[in-house]
Each structure stands twice: as C-alpha cells, then as structure tokens.
Design a protein that fits this description.
Structural class: mainly alpha
Strand content: under 5%
Oligomer: single chain
Distance between the termini: 38 Å
Order of helices and strands: HHEEHHHHHHHH
Helix content: 25-40%
Number of helices: 10
Radius of gyration: 22 Å
Amino acid sequence: MDSLSSLASLTPEQFFGGITKAGKALAAAEKKGNVPKTKNFDFSVQETCCVCQKNITPPLKVLRCSACRAPIYCGRECATKHWKYPPPQPPGSIPGPTHKELCPANKRHMERREYYDGVLKSFPWGRLESDATFSFDIARGRFGVFGGTGTGYWSHRGGPIPHSNRGVLESMLASSPYGATIMKAFAAFDHTDGADLLGARHLTDVQGWKLEPAFIPYLNFPSTDKRPALVTSALNSWDCLAKLNFPDTPNSLKSAVLSQNSGFAQV
C-alpha cells in the first residue's frame, strides 16, 4: 500500500522535474569528461519477463531466444510458452502474436542493431546504458524539454500513464480495491499529447522547439540571408545527410532536420 500511496502523491512536476534534473546532471558530468560509474548515472530499465511480467533480478538470469535474441524471459518455462501461445492480455483485449510468428522479423531487426547503435552514438547526446538501452526521457531531460504542457513540440504525457488510450485498464481498475487510488494518480497526469499545438496561435520555431538557437531547424527566417541552401531532393534516409551541402551542421541538429523532412525523427 505504501507504493500505491507514493504513486497517488506523485505529481507531474516531481516526475518530469526529477528526470530533467538527472539529464542535466549527466550533461554536466559529460562536459567535465567525468561521468561517475554509479547508479545515479545509469538509466537502465528494469528487465521484465515479456510473458509473466516478473522483474528479473538476481539470482534469476535473463533468458533470450537463441535465434533472434530479442524477447526477454525469466526462464525456460515462459520462453516455451511464448513460442506457442501469445502473452496473457487483459480481459477484452485482442490476443497478440506468438513468438514463433514474430521470431523471423525480430531477427532481421536485431541484425541491424549495431548500425543503429552507431547512429545513436554519433550524436553528443547519444548514449547507451549498461543494459544497451537508450533513454529518450533522459535525452529530453538534458535539454529541458521533457514534460507535458509548456514543452512545445515535445509536449507529451508521462508518469503512470504514458499512453493516451488506456483501453480496458479503466474498466479493470473499477473493480479493484485500489482503483480509486490509482485513478487519482491518472487524473494528476492527464494530458493530451501535443496540447501546446491546440492554442489559438501557431507556435513560433523558438516556442515549439524550446532549444538553443543553434539546434533549432528553423522553418521561418527573419531575412533571406539567414536561410540555408535550398535542398530539392527528398531526405528519405539517414545516408542522405551526407549529400547535404551543410558542412557546418552539427550532429546534434541533424536528427531534427530529418524529423522535419522525412519522419525519421527518433533513434
């Protein structure tokens, strides 16, 4: 019950502010060239069995599919079950695919992992944690754009309800003795993704991106001499960046350029 009380008392300011503080502390340590190897600077995620949802902590060890190396299991029993049957779903949900159906596609994706790791680490903010994951929350936190209302184009819900559609979760909570407590936490974090775009006026480039001027992929320029060279070809892949006539474009800006032109927005 203590954890539920903590959840109910958690505010968006605490949640977003805590991660932003951690992101900025990481950026400051990197700037000094000395990131301590402590838990305070390791933003790995808790490894969880994709079948039973059990946290995998010692003495348990992570078990992966030997073919694709993608899903995580707490043991052989869950791995065998997932091969034949989809993971358990909430009542009323559509059953998902089995691992037997997903394994070939997973393998193709995992074979490209090294390439995308390289793309990520080419950016100053690109960082892999000790479990080989990338924290997009920490990346936004270091730039002060992790949050809901007031974060421009980055406006997004988070905390206990990271998704807009809670589906059958609300009906499940209605019959739970702790449902009222959890719904109170949901109410505090209720937010429409992209709410900052629903105002009476369009956001300016600065208001929308909320980044340092050098990092903003401007669409509107105060004068013609501020405009970059015109690019007439479509930017539809990461490799197209090499063809851009922007020799001074920093890596930290390139992902934003792509997000404006081709939808390749997040690594």
